[in-house]
Amino acid sequence: MARYPNLKGVLVNVQPQPTNTIFGPVTHCLAGQDWLEEHFAGLVLRLRGDAFFQVHTEAAEALVSELRDRLALQPHETLLDAYAGIGTLVLPLAPHVRRAIALERNPQAVRQGQQNAALNGLDNVEFCEGAVEVQLPRWPEMPEVVVLDPPRKGCDPAVMATLRERPPQRLAYIGCHPATLARDLAQLCAGDRFRLTYVRPFDFFPQTHHVETLTILTRTP
User: How is domain 54-219 classified at the architecture level of CATH?
Assistant: First the structure.
């Protein structure tokens, strides 16, 4: 750390399970601090070493900007961000709506999201811990705007069913796997429940086959 001033800390994460999950439940800080300060989309974020955050910051900021513009957010609306993580999407979108809700199953990510909301003075963001497929069907009233950013396996069938039964006015689906994105979009648009109005890929991982795709859907009359 004396030789490389930009090195903020040294961590060891323990993952005893033989799965494809990268991080285990325990992280030890051997030296320095266990968080980084990241300037992202006009915000200051504190990121722990075991947090998920997009490594291609410029591409992620471009996606957030496009998402905000295409959703045409209004100051009287409520926005719900499913699979919110530490709030990478919901925190920069929150200033443009009356209320923002973040659903996330990882308790550590929820705590980091709450801390970063407070750090940036965002008092209209509510982080709710729990699985999206459990929490969303119980939500008393569907917000005007919903953002989905699921893992590669896509959305749970319970999430699809809830959105078709109680469709929001506008829906953004950010897919990191084209096959599951196409599958879920087909379910959402079946029977003219939603209309797909916009598709744009973002190259988060240049010179690989991986792509993030932003799609916008609107509820049909």
Answer: 3-Layer(aba) Sandwich (3.40)
